[in-house]
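Re-run with default settings, no changes from the original entry. Doing this only to confirm the output is reproducible before filing.
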Amino acid sequence: MAGIDHGWRMEQHAEAPGVRVPRLPRFVACVAALIGCASPVPDCDAPPDAPAITIVYVHAGNAPPAHFGVDLEAAVWPDGRLVWTADAASQPPVLLASSIEPERVVTFLEDLCARGIFDDPAYSTPHFGPDGDYVMIRVAWGGRCVKLGSWHEIEEAHGVYVPRESGAKVLAERWARFRSAWTDIRLEVASWIPPTGEPFTGTIDLRSAR
């Protein structure tokens, strides 16, 4: 069974048994510094060994107590390791693991940094409220992190979502930038996930990913 706690009592570690969580290669750290991604952010709460991209589904608001917590959808490390949910309907969800070329991950992270994802408040502005489930995408790279949180996918699936920024402006320019980055991350991560993988039996720290 994978080491994901789906409630609030999360006592997990990001390092799987027998698998060393990678340290960033020196050249990668240098590139991050050159393009401005190496400056630490005071409110960056991602642990040093966190995945570079973490996507979670957060059960909140009126969720039944048994489902009140965080479910992992996908996690990607800079060395190309992937972990994703193969069957979200099962409890706990079935997690699989695989890997891709690290260069693909690093290049995408550099692209996100270049578009200002860590500095532009349009990306960190939450698009969800206290009374419902939402999806959170955390990007952690070069000592910086940002969280993109929204419930638009969930509401759109039920045909009830009206695009807005902080509940006021329809299709605002800030929302457009947020939605563009969100879609790019979703599509890129999905393109990395193979049809099948090996069962994941390690642990991932999700305490700061929600």
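The helical segments are 26-34, 102-114, 121-124, 152-157, 173-192. The first strand starts at residue 53 and ends at 59.
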